[in-house]
Amino acid sequence: MDKMRQRTGTSPLHATATSFGSGLRWWRERRGFSQLDLAGAAETTQRYLSFLESGRAGPSREMILRLAAVLDLPLRQQNALLLAAGFAPAWRESRLSAPELAAVNHALDYMLIQQEPYPAFVVDRRWTLLRANTGAARLTEFLLGPPSATATEPVNLAVALVSPDALRPLIVNWEEVALYFLRGVQADAIADGTRETADLLARLLAFPGLPALSHVLSPAEPRAPVLVIHFRKGEASLRLFTTIATLGTAHDVTLQEIRVECFFPMDDATANIFRTWS
Question: Is 68 exposed, middle or buried (0-12, 13-18, 19+ CB in 10 A)?
Answer without folding.
Answer: buried
